[in-house]
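cron nightly-structures :: item 1 of 1
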Amino acid sequence: MTLAFEIRRRARHIVGPVIGCLLLGYFVFHAVEGDRGVHAWRALDSRIEAAESRLAVLKRRREALEKKVAMLHPESIDRDLLTEQARIVLNYQGRDEFVLQDLAGYQDVNSPFGSTGMVETQAISMASRAN
């Protein structure tokens, strides 16, 4: 009986710190691995960086489009841009011209990979040598 009594007496002194260590371990584990832990925080930071870089690209694209639209206003029309847009829309090409297309990043709409962008077209006029 003395052995059982000694185990109970020592267990009273050990149970509190053991439960405290287990609770501390539980909270530390969830602070690192939980839904709002350190790993989730790092993953969220990387997603934020990717979204900010995409936002910067989209802002630059929007500014370029706004500049292009501003050049099409009647007060400040750019004749070269108007001619270029008319040729693209009407599919017009003069006899002494040929078309260069920038196909970087472009895929056919009917391709299984889908379309990735618009084709930019430039018409260059070649002076005829027959004078």
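cron nightly-structures :: done
Helices lie at 2-33, 38-71, 79-90.
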